[in-house]
Amino acid sequence: MYFMISFYLLTISLILFFSSLIFILFNIKILIKINIMKFMSFNMEFIMFIDWMSLIFISVVFMISSMVLIYSMEYMYNHIYIERFMKLIMIFFLSMMLMIISPNMLSMLFGWDGLGLSSYCLIIFYQNKKTFNSGMITILMNRIGDINILIMISLLINFNSMNFLFLKNYNNIIMVMIMMAAITKSAQIPFSTWLPLAMAAPTPVSSLVHSSTLVTAGIYLLIRLSYLLNKKFLMMLMFISLWTMLLASSTAMFEFDLKKIIALSTLSQLALMFLSISMNLSLLSFFHLITHAMFKSLLFLCSGIIIHNYFNNQDIRMISMMNYNMPLINMIFNIASLTLCGMPFLSGFYSKDLIIEFFNMNNMNSFTFNLMYVCMMMTTIYSFRLIYYISMKSTKMIYFNKFYSSNKMNYSIYLLFLFSMFYGSMMNWILINSMNLIILNIKMKILIWKLMINGVMMIVYLSMKMKLNKIMIKFWYWLNYLWFLNNMFKKSKMNLFKMNLNMNLIEMMWLEYLSSKKLIYMMFKFNKNKNFNKLNFSIIMTFISYIIIIMFLF
């Protein structure tokens, strides 16, 4: 049954892809509106907006989902709850499809919350203490973004419509809400903790979550609403993305968990997409989004086979000599890693190179410029480090086992390998249809290639000469805990946040002041003011709700 579902998904994906070419050629846009109910002057509507961008993205989601379903049929073959797992995956990608085609905040909320709840169920699928903790941190951090979406819906009621078309009239407060929702969903700093912890889920889930569904929802929302961002928001977004890129790249350089390295590379690439949006390059951000989805899902599916064959071991120090044990999977994994660091002329090169060259053309200060290029060099370092440990470095441990290979798992990897090789060049011809005038001198043009070569030389030197001392151990500990973000979000030792010590004080002071009688008194008092209107009322209520939410969170 699931094989037929994956076949239908693959067929629909190809149909949607060719339909998107027609939509691009004739500039077709379709808006479907369904009235659910009408309350006074407010219409509650379910709206679907179909254009070339939504069709291409849905085709990518369906393509990866079909491959993940085929892969999961073999990967979860002996599991007692395989039916539950498959149904959760289908709910997961259908929620993403609903989020993609919705230009209405209310209809988008169904897909947005569906992603959060189904991802929580998939992360805790193995049901142990580690997965429960990871799932709880994931869902609580995503709830912060969901709260912002709900507050934004309450503000949009003032316009009697929840469509994105009316957001241009009043963009400051709403754009803060949208940015918070996007940053939490796409795990930008300081909400980066949940993304590596989500690796507690099964590998097919990681392939789907980190390529085209959960973490890309926030970036897709910002791509759709990028025309609303002013200079202040763009500058803020640029610094958030650069620091997230530095955090992810520096941590991945010293990480030994295979799935965590790939997850941190996802975080780094998401930060690159945010950086391109901050330079008003939303089309290039979408281009990198769909090419990244292909090779990142391929990396996770390859890592699943590797973990399977090495006795569920995820430590790259114990995984070695794959070029002898699994030569074909090793070749595909290495090419996907080279695609990640932007090796020409693979799929990731076409989008990444354009973003870097447009970044060079902007008049950035030296700090921003150097930070960007340091992050690019670190991306090369952890990609080649992964290749070195898995393919070249020998280990003292000797495995006497028969390496397992399944046709179902291999078929999905082979098809994704073809797409990750050629999808970038193909989409470059389709999306980038006009001449981009890039004026750079030869030094700036070859600077990124110099840094890539320096990164390769540095990883060879570090692998041979680096010795652990007290300073290096502390530095590794600091990086391993994501600059201590994990400790900050997992627990706090401050007595201020212990509810059992402060319950009486809270009940006597804050809750008494913000009780229903006091709120009604404040509303009557404000109504006497002539300058009071609905907009001011919504802002005040938003502020009060934030106080209550923050108070109850701790």
TrEMBL record:
It is found in: Membrane. Its EC number is 7.1.1.2. It is a multi-pass membrane protein. Signal peptide: none annotated. One of its GO terms (biological process) is ATP synthesis coupled electron transport. One of its GO terms (cellular component) is membrane. It catalyses: a ubiquinone + NADH + 5 H(+)(in) = a ubiquinol + NAD(+) + 4 H(+)(out). PANTHER family: NADH-UBIQUINONE OXIDOREDUCTASE CHAIN 5. Core subunit of the mitochondrial membrane respiratory chain NADH dehydrogenase (Complex I) that is believed to belong to the minimal assembly required for catalysis. Complex I functions in the transfer of electrons from NADH to the respiratory chain. The immediate electron acceptor for the enzyme is believed to be ubiquinone. This is NADH-ubiquinone oxidoreductase chain 5. It comes from Meteorus pulchricornis. The gene is ND5.
